[in-house]
Amino acid sequence: MKLVKILMLLGVVGLCSACSDVSPRQRGALALPQMAYTIDAQEFALRQHTAYSKESQAGGYGGGGGGCGCN
Fold it and tell me: How far, in Å, CA of 52 to CA of 58, rounded?
């Protein structure tokens, strides 16, 4: 039981040590296009439009209307 508590404590300490602040001068090096959520903005917009029109969902991006695709 004591071994489990020690391992859990070490795990929490290990997870907390991975968190760090990024200074403004480092953000430019970390903001690579490959790390973006979507590389092609037009493809992302097309997928959002298709999901909104056909599935009648907005995906948390706002907008109103039905699933008819007439908006």
Answer: 5
What angle is formed at CA 69 by the lines to CA 68 and CA 71, rounded to 5 degrees?
115
Closest by CA to 62, choosing from 13, 70, 71, is 71
What's the gap between Cα 65 and its chain centre? 26
Eight-state DSSP code of residue 34: G
Which tokens go with 21? 């602040």
pTM over 0.70: no
pLDDT digits over 33-47, tens only? 777 776 688 888 888
Task: Give the 3-state secondary structure of residue 39.
Answer: coil
**Residue 53 phi, psi dihedral angles, 5° rounding:** -75, -45
